Amino acid sequence: MDSTQPPGAARVLLVASGKGGTGKTTLALALAHAWAATGLRVALVDADPQAGTTTAAGLVPVADPLTADPSPAHGLLLYPAGRTLSGASPDAHAARVRRAAETAELVVVDASPSLTDAAHEGALGVAALVLVAARTDAAGLPSVAETVAAAEAVGVPVRVVPTFTAGTGLARESHAFLRGRYGDRVTAAAIPQDARAAEAAGVGRPVTLTAPRSRVAEALRVLAEELLPALLPARTAALGGLVRSPDTSGKGAAGRRVRSPDNGAAPPAHPVPGGAAGGAS
Questions:
Q1: β 42-46/76-79 pair status
Q2: Cα separations (Å) of 44 from 98, 139, 140, 149, 199?
Q3: Of the candidates 41, 151, 156, 231, which lies 20 to 30 Å from 185 by C-alpha distance?
Q4: Position 249 confidence tier, pLDDT thresholds 50, 70, 90
Q5: Is 10 a residue whose pLDDT tops 70?
């Protein structure tokens, strides 16, 4: 276990949006997978009762997400969701994230596209950073301001990532608007529109695994590398550029070997809280 990041000291990233269809779930799953592929201990918490992240990772919703054991998926531990999460309190959601943090270095939380639910309130209380998915079209921009304001209200730092970018005038104008309003809080990485992201979710795997050399996967790895210093500054230098290395060949850009966790096994030194990992119920 890495002495620089003891158990219980995990950094929590909340991936949020006040609107559906922004690519939030794709972001959460791909970022978690990209970080896990470097050897980091990563937990992914699905906090949406609709269980979009759970199914996108190839698992099924569970009857009682608050007590269910996490399941290994693509090199990380996933805390699956289920419909009963809709009745959970903010404290229960926060406790679930803290449980994930017991054995992880990084915890990624994917909440529902509703800023007023208990999951957001609970996750905001333990988050180190909020990543706002900003779809670059007219319909997507208003929810960005609401999401940023929710994070600012509790003093959590924010980064805004443009999603569904395309070579259209509207997309360029939307991107310029985000830059003008949020400045350097807008990530340098922008996530392009790519059907392969939806295809990956359809087969229950992150796009960084199913199409690692695609434009969208490369952009997601660049984003993972960009965000890491804000989350784990002590680990960033040691990891170098491995986040951006496609994992089809198992080698990084400089020929360094990286792990390709596509067999569903949990990474070493990443124990499951409370015993063996449980499946869906």
A1: parallel
A2: 12, 28, 25, 24, 20
A3: 41
A4: very low
A5: yes
